[in-house]
Amino acid sequence: MIEATPTMYRGTRCRSVLEAQHAMRFDRLGIEVVYEPDKVFLAPKWSYVPDFFVKPWSAYVEIKPLSPTQDARKKAALLARKTHALVHVFAGQESIQIWGLRRPSFILLDREIGVPTAEYAR
Predict the structure, then answer these.
(1) CA distances from 90 to 9, 22, 106 (A)
(2) How many CB atoms lie within 10 A of CB 110?
């Protein structure tokens, strides 16, 4: 397990440097996000707080330093099912794995700014 270093970005204490970097990228692109927006109950006595809610996409974004584990994939699928929203799992800064009401797909990220190279289509 990779140890996260809490990092401040614009007055918000992000749980990791990687999350703060993504917050900065969203901000630079003018994409409105809410950091750790909601506690979602995935099952009785099992809650989950997604990293971001991206308002223009009406989607949740979860940041992972590496390829998501089976547990992370399960949580993303349950979050999508529970909220009826798309859930994007950003794996490091190389790709986005999209989970939701459609089948998973991959979109490459622009290496410099860390955003999808293809426009998000709903």
Answers:
(1) 19, 9, 10
(2) 11
Higher-pLDDT residue of 41, 114: 41
How far is CA 31 from each of CA 26, 34, 44, 91, rounded to the nearest angstrom? 5, 10, 33, 19
CB burial class (10 A; 0-12, 13-18, 19+) of residue 73? Answer: middle
The model carries a pTM of: 0.73
Q: If we measure between CA atoms, which residue out of 52, 58, 48, 59 comes closest to residue 36?
A: 52
Beta-carbon contacts of 118 under 8 Å, excluding residues fewer than 6 positions away, are 107
The identity of residue 41, as a single letter, is: F
Domain ranges of the chain: 34-108
Please say whether the dihedral angle defined by the alpha carbons of residues 48, 53, 59 and 61, taken in this order, is positive or negative. Answer: negative
* pLDDT reading at 102 higher than 50: no
**pLDDT in the model for residue 119:** 40
